[in-house]
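Figure 2 data, in text form.
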Amino acid sequence: MSFTHFNEYGKAKMVSVEEKKDTTRIAVASGIIRMKQETFEMIQNNGHKKGDVLSVAQIAGIMGAKKTSDLIPMCHNIFISGADIEYTMNAEESCIHIQATVKTVGKTGIEMEALTAVSTAALTIYDMCKAVDKDMVIGNIQLEEKIGGKSGHYIR
């Protein structure tokens, strides 16, 4: 098996996608941030002195998707045609489920952008709440679905 991200000298390279066809591509990623019950209730009731935690995390997640190629080596700079983040509040387990959906029409996949959006949103929640809860745990960040490209439709 040959590795596409290395040149003939064994050094890293960015793979060329110029021969690929433009297709509609969609990626959905998810993750969870767990916290103390008091922290969860503060976020849910919009009672944080720093403001609306989930709104700030929403913007940060979208910004993260847009900056993915600046953060991940060899990741192509992709025109993003749409990005959204949804939260599901789970009071019973004191956690927030984060889901990002990112879309493009292009030559390469948008999975990394969706994963970065989830990660950035979760990190923003952590950052805004770390003064009141240092025990928060971010986890289960994963690709849920991808549409488009030659590998076709993937669902976890």
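Caption note: The first helix runs from residue 37 to 44.
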